[in-house]
Design goal:
alpha/beta, 8-stranded parallel β-barrel, elongated
């Protein structure tokens, strides 16, 4: 059955998570200590003295989280509830939103339901994530912005590919706003944002460079909107700092932290120091147990802070301006790093590993309920959990980077890999604390979900089959926006899919004659769509007998299931004006893919002969479509590996196929056949003639031997002796025939793919089985 967008098991996870967070919110006690004291002070300053005081006494820390504290303090005056409890309520709301956005991304990636439950459950129970919700640290505010950046950039990509200017502009604006908000929580995003945007738009351009010129306006609108909505508010914020305190900056911490970290890294280095750095990556406890606290303190943030603050005080004593101090600190950092860039890069990479060991029961300062305090205080539990989640996060992210190093695997995975990489890269310049890694924690959990999904799929790639395909997000009705099941925006034209995918899988359906059959097909289409076909074609009765049903099915598949669809069009019995009217209606109804066929003469008109106002051959139909509709339609034609029933000469039939391509056809779908060598020989004949278009083999799974014999006798396809030998003895046994048919089809399909076939087009006969088994086995 088609997966529900919100299965009961997932709903239960959300309800239980909310209950658990609410319990923690009412039973924990927030302790204001270390950095939390600064945040409380800044929040109170905004609440009591306003923003002018905040900027005048700055530059201070990023302003968004102190604003949230100020709002909580304002509610404290209104409700009488302590602001720390109000902050806990905000924490629960943010965790709930984070969980919802995480599930959204998991669905987009087609992660299996059981793995979704596992990821969402751990997100709900994670000590580190819960700790940020009930302590006074800013990381909690970053979670939804990070996930939102990923989704907004993903959908912006989709809008550009589909040339949806309004949506491209809207998602570009949203992306810019989210990047700005993330910067006002974690200043490092000021560095990440421009690089991320450059990578995003460069990748869109390069992966779609064949057609990007036609979508340039959408591309420009999106890029300008994203850049503007990021830089305008951030520049305004920095200007306020400049105006009130003389510092054109977002926060007060970066320059001296960069210097302190650089100075520490450029101390004399030996093998023992390198091993200490590696031991410190999983946590100071590992390093202390191996080398002692004195040796390991060198790799702590306290040592970096000591060196950075010492240099900052020296410069302050020289009565330099704030701007001069910052530029001097950055310049000195660069000089030190360039003294030995290899050493600096090596230690940056080693210390970057700290970003993966994000889990901990001891991040903020909280009084937990006694039973939970006992669990969290257990050293084995804390260290074991930290080590386990760190290692599995590292493995999952490395797998993500490897598998999604190009967007052809998965645009969403690619963007997630880029975001994680940039965050780790830019944070490696400053001190890395456990809690600094937490904004990436939801992405780590999603990466783990992808990795587990790959393992559960037998290691045949990462994610489900749809994750292997480029640009598969599917846009539904423009009023509703992208579909939840998207991977990237769908391509309405089959030729667009071919431009980005070397391999496609597709199905053929036919309009049933009876109302009962039609309703049955409507129930089958969702099951077929769950197999993630690249497109679905729908046949057309001679003379237009099923015309309305064909177009209705094509519309239904495109609009309700968001799968590119191909309408068959036969010209037999039709006049040229009728064909023009049909094509005009197709265009008006949003159909952009046509399979141009001559068609068979109906049984009730066996003596029909085409006149001057009719088409005699399918190549004439191709010419007519190109003349009257230019490039609106992507045109497919039929191919016959064994020769056409009216033209058994295979070489001459290949000449006829070449003529169809020359006249304007884009690709070929073959008639059914059973010997792969017939297909390979056919392709070879066509290549000799200079045909380079995609030739997709048509495959009919055998489920009924007598029916197969009758069908092949009508269409002219031969039945090899091997098929007779296998299926004739079991013709009366449906189960054995079905099993043998699956085995035969799998063998045929694998031979074709191994031999270089660019995909498979299955004649489903309007049934889900056995195509579902075959597709899953092949992928």
């Amino acid at each position: 059955m088609k997966q529900s967008p919100f299965p009961p098991s997932i709903a239960a996870i959300f309800i239980l998570s909310l209950a658990y967070w609410s319990y923690l919110g009412t039973t924990t006690g927030m302790i204001i200590f270390f950095d939390a004291i600064g945040y409380e002070s800044l929040g109170r300053m905004i609440q009591t003295q306003g923003w002018v005081s905040y900027f005048t006494n700055g530059p201070n820390r990023e302003g968004l989280y102190p604003l949230l504290i100020a709002v909580s303090m304002a509610f404290e005056h209104i409700t009488g509830l302590a602001f720390v409890k109000i902050m806990a309520i905000f924490g629960v709301i943010i965790l709930f939103l984070t969980q919802a956005l995480t599930y959204k991304i998991l669905r987009l990636l087609d992660i299996r339901n059981g793995i979704c439950i596992l990821v969402l459950s751990y997100l709900a129970l994670s000590p580190a994530l819960n700790n940020t919700a009930f302590s006074l640290f800013s990381e909690i505010a970053a979670y939804p912005f990070v996930l939102g950046i990923l989704l907004a950039s993903y959908y912006a990509w989709g809008a550009i590919i589909h040339n949806k200017k309004y949506y491209a502009f809207s998602y570009g604006m949203l992306l810019g706003i989210l990047l700005a908000l993330a910067t006002l929580v974690k200043g490092v995003f000021e560095c990440i944002a421009p690089v991320y945007l450059i990578i995003l738009f460069s990748t869109i351009f390069l992966t779609d460079k064949q057609t990007i010129a036609k979508k340039m306006m959408a591309f420009i609108l999106c890029a300008v909107a994203a850049a503007s909505l990021f830089y305008v508010p951030i520049t305004a914020y920095k200007w306020l700092n400049l105006h009130y305190n003389g510092n054109f900056t977002v926060t007060n911490r970066a320059p001296w932290m960069i210097y302190g970290n650089t100075a520490r890294r450029m101390e004399p280095l030996g093998l023992k120091k390198i091993v200490e750095a590696l031991a410190y990556a999983p946590g100071e406890g590992v390093c202390n147990s191996l080398f002692g606290q004195k040796e390991c303190d060198f790799w702590s943030f306290q040592e970096s802070d000591r060196l950075g603050i010492k240099k900052l005080n020296e410069l302050n004593n020289q009565h330099l301006s704030p701007k001069k101090i910052n530029t001097t600190l950055v310049g000195l950092s660069a000089q030190k790093a360039l003294q030995n860039p290899f050493q600096y890069a090596l230690l940056a990479a080693i210390e970057g590993l700290k970003m993966f060991f994000w889990e901990s029961t001891k991040i903020g300062f909280i009084n937990y309920p006694p039973w939970l305090s006992k669990i969290y205080g257990n050293r084995i539990f804390n260290n074991g959990l930290r080590l386990f989640t760190g290692l599995i996060s590292l493995v999952a992210v490395l797998s993500l980077w490897f598998q999604a190093r190009t967007p052809q695997k998965s645009p969403l995975g690619f963007l997630m890999g880029v975001l994680i990489f940039l965050y780790i890269l830019f944070f490696s310049f400053v001190s890395v604390l456990t809690r600094y890694a937490l904004p990436m924690a939801p992405l780590y959990l999603i990466s783990i979900g992808i990795w587990l999904n790959s393992l559960s799929s037998g290691g045949r790639g990462w994610g489900l089959p749809s994750e292997r395909r480029l640009l598969r997000a599917r846009w539904g009705n423009p009023r509703t926006g992208p579909d939840d099941r998207a991977i990237m925006p769908p391509m309405q034209k089959i030729t667009d899919i071919f431009a980005h995918q070397k391999l496609t899988f597709s199905f053929e359906l036919f309009p049933p004659k009876t109302e009962e059959g039609y309703l049955k097909l409507l129930n089958t289409i969702p099951l077929l769509s769950d197999l993630k076909p690249d497109f679905i074609s729908c046949t057309y009765g001679a003379g237009g007998g099923s015309r309305e049903k064909t177009l209705g099915l094509v519309e239904h598949i495109q609009n309700h299931h968001h799968i590119p669809s191909v309408a068959h069009l036969t010209c037999v019995l039709h006049t040229k004006n009728e064909i023009k009217d049909i094509l005009t209606e197709m265009k008006q109804r949003g159909v952009s893919n046509v399979l141009a066929l001559r068609g068979d003469t109906p049984k009730d008109q066996p003596n029909w002969i085409p006149g001057k106002d009719n088409f005699k051959y399918s190549w004439e139909l191709v010419v007519f479509i190109r003349e009257h509709f230019r490039d609106h339609f992507s045109i497919g034609v039929a191919g016959f590996p064994e020769g056409h029933v009216l033209c058994p000469d295979r070489d001459l039939d290949a000449q006829y196929l070449k003529n169809k391509i020359t006249k304007g056809a884009d690709y070929v779908i073959t008639q059914l056949f059973f010997k792969p060598q017939d297909y390979f020989d056919y392709v070879a004949r066509l290549k000799k003639l200079g045909v380079s278009s995609r030739i997709i083999p048509g495959i009919l799974p055998i489920t009924d031997y007598p029916a197969l014999i009758r069908f092949c006798s009508m269409c002219g396809a031969s039945v090899p002796q091997e098929v007779h030998d296998i299926f004739r003895p079991i013709a009366e046994n449906h189960e054995k025939t079905l099993a043998a048919g699956i085995d035969f089809c799998l063998k045929q399909s694998r031979t074709l793919l191994q031999g270089g076939a660019p995909g498979l087009h299955f004649y489903t006969l309007n049934k889900i089985h056995p195509v579902d088994v075959i597709i899953k086995e092949i992928l």
